[in-house]
Structure formats: C-alpha cells, structure tokens
Here is the input.
Amino acid sequence: MWLRGDAPVHVDPNYLYSENPVVYQNEKGEKGMRFTLKMRAQTRGGEVDFSDSLLSVCGADEAVLILSAATSFNGFDKDPQTEGKDEILWADTYDKKASTYVYTELKKRHVEDYQSYFNRVQFELEDRTDHSDKDIKERLFAYREGAHDPALEALYYQFGRYLLISSSRPGGMPANLQGIWNHLLRAPWSSNYTMNINAEMDYWLAEVCNLSEMHIPPFWTMFSECRRMENRPPPISIVPGVGPLVTIRISGRKQILSVTADWEIPPGLTGIWEVPGRASICSNITVLQAISVS
Here is the structure.
C-alpha cells in the first residue's frame, strides 16, 4: 500500500494571520518536496487484502506492519521537484531491505543501534527516593507542586538524551524546533532552526551527555548555508562584529535552506537570546572549520 503527496511550497507561521497560509503551488508553478510512504503486512498464515485506502488481514496468527518512507530532498542546493531524489525508489528499497528480516531481528537491530549511544552514560543521584510505582503524569504534577522525586530528575535527563539520539544523526538533518515529532502542517515556530538560541538549545546536551556524533548535523547545515550565501551581497551591518541572527528552514525550493532574516542585529534589539546563541555557534568554530576542510 502506497501513500504519495507533495509538501507545501510555502506555509505561513502559525502566529501570523493569513487568508491563504498554506500554498502547494506558487505563482510560478513551483511545488514543494515530494514524499511517499509504503506499508507492507508480513503475516504468518491468513490472507492479506489491499484496497485504495484499506489493508485487511484475515485469519493470520501474526501480522507485522512494515512502513518505509522517503522524500525527494536532495541537498541544500537542489530543487526537490526537478532535481530531487526518486522517493518512490528509495521507499521501495528501504521496504525490501527491512522485509528480509523477521520482527525479532528488526527489533534487535534497532535496540542495538540505539543503545550503542544511550548506554554510554549512567546517571544516578545519591538520593534514590523512587516513585516509579506512580504514573508519570501524577509524578510530574506532584513535582510541580514541590514533591521530592530525584528519580524523576534522573529520568528527565535521560529523556533529553533519547530525544536527541532519535532526531539527530550523522548524515541527516539537524533536530528542528519540534524534533521529528511534529504532526501539524503549521507547526509552532514553523519547525524552523531559529539560530538566535532555540536551535542551540537542542544541542546543549550533545557534548556534556556524550553524544558528540549528534552534533554533526547542525554544523554541516550551517556550513552548507554559508556556502549557499557565498555569492550573495553581505548583510546590512548595524553593529560591526555582531553575527547574523537567522532562521533556517527546509523550504523545498532551489535554495533549500532559506535565511529569513539574514541581517545583523545589535545585542538587545530582540532581547537577550541572540547573545548566547551567537556564543554557542562561535564556541564550535573549530568543528565548522573541520567540516569545511573535509
């Protein structure tokens, strides 16, 4: 069973009023990124039947659903419609590869991959007061009211590591402001990479939590954006020496990474956040230089 479609070519932020906030084809006839999803049912016994919008399994002792997905995204400098990858071919390739394994093997490979990063750190507090017999929502509410729950603090630390491991891997795109869990067409802050401080906050834990590999995607994205802007006029300089405050997004057009505010802004004009944001980027200049050399 296949699901195919086109992402919008433009979406207005959810905090702006617009009569036409979601545009699938602009005035030039350009469209956004293509996507596809393939679902297969592996069964033990029984029968599998497909229709236009329904997959049914009858009389089976076991059914495993395998989902594979791909997009036409082909890099920061490629138009995903005219120069994009063959998303149908890639989704089919992923599906065929996954289908060579039984469920227990797929789960084992996934757990081993994830734990190779997660198990690098063990975090325990001296006070081991434990309320794990209670529901998480109940513990969170009690903690907000002042309850003593150090085990919840340790769990929250590891939860942050889980989020980064799951949404930022070498070779892929960085974790945006919603990670990989956004379900909205007009996501909060457009699922951007807001470089004043928000995107940096996603990665504050990368080095100190022994997840250095997860730090590579944002550096590569910044380097790609610098390459894209090499032939553009320099931004308006308000205060010499102050770096640009930018928002980067995967726009789905020829210039995939679009800077929506590439001018230099003096500290204090937009609050305090641009200062630590720039400091965070500058603290990793060595990594950016290494990427540019490679």
Q: What stands out?
A: Confidence is low (pLDDT under 50) at residues 234-245, 251-269. The radius of gyration is 23 Å. The CA atoms of residues 114 and 165 lie 7 Å apart.
